[in-house]
Each structure stands twice: as structure tokens, then as C-alpha cells.
């Protein structure tokens, strides 16, 4: 199995949301994903990073978010980590339309989108220590080039 | 990257065209300019054209739903038109299709408000 990995960290500032999703999409492009698959990856990165900024760090711009992306054959694993306040009740947070910040016009759809666009989404969170979102996705095998 | 918005007045209808990427970062800027544009006198309803929106996430859903609610509270209507497949999928997922009225293109959306373009 050929494994290729990258890791990067950046300040918890909203201007970095576009940087994060474009960087991951660029790395993942090595697997020759479809445009739809690439859009899905960009969207879930945007959702997880936005969660870390708004909820994990309460919009404090001086914290750090780390993304680790691993490619193995035709599968991508994405790990998005913050060292923020954590999520008291992960199951509740993952319910569609649930938001802890309705005043900020949050749609409550972030985790629902992640679960729809990826094959697996696993959230590990400890209050006061931070949140790690791990997501996996297998790209369409049929169109993969033969080795 | 980033987001630009063109606002145009078509009779009593505010037409807003979004170009670029709508995420949490650009949503806060959009909210400000959008609320300001809606304060212009004489505007009854609005049409939101998403044809040139190359990226949107759930923050985009939030800011659109926010303006929809504000308009509705004043008895005004918002119609969204020209969705790309990716944006269409997010509206489907969120259930906003059941709340907001969508039309295929800008011309038709304006016509539903009685604005006929020459």
C-alpha cells in the first residue's frame, strides 16, 4: 500500500478557511478525484475548520488548528484538530439543525454535511482539551487508472 | 477567491448576484452589505442569483436563511435562482427547499414578481 501524508497548522482566523480547503484539495488531487469528490472534500474541510474557529476557540484568532491528511491507495483520511473548549455532548452537536450559537446565524448543518459527504466521521472531544474530527472517504474505484 | 456581490435594483426588486466563494469568512461581510442594500427605500422583494457561486458551505446556508427570515418578518419575499449542482445539493440536504422559493433562472425569478426584462 502506498501511503502519502501531510500535516499543516494555521491560525484560527476565518480568512484561513479558504486556504485550508484549497490546500487539502490540492494534496488530494493526486488521487485523481472527480470534481464532485473534490467539492465534497473542500466542503467538509471548511465545515470542520469553521467549527474549530467559532465553537472550539470562540473566534479567538490567536489559536492553532492542525490538519493531517493521509492518502492510501484510493482512500483519504482527514484529521482536523483544535485545542479549544471541546464539545460537551457530541451526539447532540451532530444532530441536524442543532446549533449552540443560533445568534451567529449558524445553520446547524456542519456535521450533517460532513456525514453526508464522507464515508465515516468520528468526533473525539474532551471538554477543556479540544476536539479532533477524523473523516474517511474512498474515491470512486471504477474510474481509477490501472497501475 | 473571496466573494463579490453585485446589487441591482429592478423596479421594486433588489437583485443580488454572488460571485466567488461563500464561507464563514465571506458570510459576515455579505451579511453587512446585504442588510444595507435591503434598507434602500422602495424595495419590496428580492432575487438572489447564485449562478457564479463557485463554493458554498453551511455558513452560506446560515446567512441566506437569516436574510430570508428578516424579509419574511416584514412581509417581503426572497426568491433564489440559478443554483449550481453543488449548491443545489446543500439546499436539498438542509431542507431549505421546503421553505425558500427557487426558480430556474434570473429572468423567470424576476417575472414572478412582475418585472419583465426587455
UniProtKB/TrEMBL annotation, chain A:
Catalyzed reaction equations: L-threonyl-[protein] + ATP = O-phospho-L-threonyl-[protein] + ADP + H(+); L-seryl-[protein] + ATP = O-phospho-L-seryl-[protein] + ADP + H(+)
Keywords, in A-Z order: ATP-binding, Kinase, Nucleotide-binding, Serine/threonine-protein kinase, Sporulation, Transferase
Enzyme Commission no: 2.7.11.1
Signal peptide: none
The keyword Transferase belongs to this UniProt entry's keyword annotation: yes
Gene3D superfamilies hit by this protein: Histidine kinase-like ATPase, C-terminal domain
Protein name: Anti-sigma F factor
Organism: Terribacillus saccharophilus
From TrEMBL, chain B:
Keywords in alphabetical order: Phosphoprotein, Sporulation
Gene Ontology MF term list: anti-sigma factor antagonist activity; antisigma factor binding
Gene3D superfamilies per UniProt: STAS domain (3.30.750.24)
UniProt-listed GO biological process terms: sporulation resulting in formation of a cellular spore
Domain named STAS: residues: 3-113
InterPro entries assigned: Anti-sigma_ant, Anti-sigma_F_ant, STAS_dom, STAS_dom_sf
NCBIfam families with a match to the protein in the record: ant_ant_sig, spore_II_AA
Family: Belongs to the anti-sigma-factor antagonist family.
Protein function: In the phosphorylated form it could act as an anti-anti-sigma factor that counteracts SpoIIAB and thus releases sigma f from inhibition.
Protein name (record): Anti-sigma F factor antagonist
Source taxonomy: Bacteria, Bacillati, Bacillota, Bacilli, Bacillales
Amino acid at each position: 500500500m502506498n501511503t502519502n501524508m501531510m500535516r499543516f497548522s494555521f491560525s484560527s482566523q476565518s480568512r484561513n478557511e479558504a486556504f485550508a480547503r484549497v490546500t487539502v484539495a490540492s494534496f488530494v488531487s493526486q488521487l485523481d478525484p472527480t470534481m464532485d469528490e473534490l467539492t465534497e472534500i473542500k466542503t467538509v474541510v471548511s465545515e470542520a475548520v469553521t467549527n474549530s474557529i467559532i465553537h472550539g476557540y470562540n473566534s479567538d484568532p490567536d489559536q492553532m488548528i492542525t490538519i493531517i491528511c493521509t492518502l492510501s491507495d484510493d482512500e483519504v483520511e482527514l484529521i482536523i484538530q483544535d485545542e479549544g473548549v471541546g464539545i460537551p455532548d457530541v451526539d447532540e452537536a451532530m444532530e441536524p439543525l442543532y446549533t449552540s450559537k443560533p445568534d451567529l446565524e449558524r445553520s446547524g448543518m456542519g456535521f450533517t454535511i460532513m456525514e453526508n459527504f464522507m464515508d465515516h466521521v468520528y468526533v473525539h472531544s474532551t471538554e477543556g482539551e479540544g476536539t479532533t474530527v477524523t473523516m474517511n472517504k474512498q474515491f470512486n474505484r471504477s474510474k481509477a487508472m490501472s497501475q | 477567491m473571496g466573494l463579490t456581490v453585485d446589487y441591482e435594483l429592478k423596479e421594486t426588486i433588489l437583485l443580488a448576484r454572488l460571485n466567488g466563494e461563500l464561507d464563514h469568512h465571506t458570510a459576515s461581510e455579505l451579511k453587512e452589505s446585504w442588510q444595507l442594500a435591503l434598507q434602500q427605500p422602495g424595495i419590496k422583494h428580492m432575487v438572489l442569483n447564485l449562478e457564479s457561486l463557485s463554493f458554498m458551505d453551511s455558513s452560506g446556508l446560515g446567512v441566506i436563511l437569516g436574510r430570508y427570515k428578516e424579509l419574511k418578518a416584514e412581509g417581503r419575499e426572497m426568491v433564489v435562482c440559478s443554483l449550481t449542482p453543488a449548491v443545489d445539493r446543500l439546499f436539498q440536504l438542509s431542507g431549505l427547499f421546503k421553505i425558500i422559493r427557487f426558480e430556474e433562472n434570473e429572468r423567470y425569478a424576476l417575472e414572478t414578481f412582475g418585472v419583465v426584462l426587455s
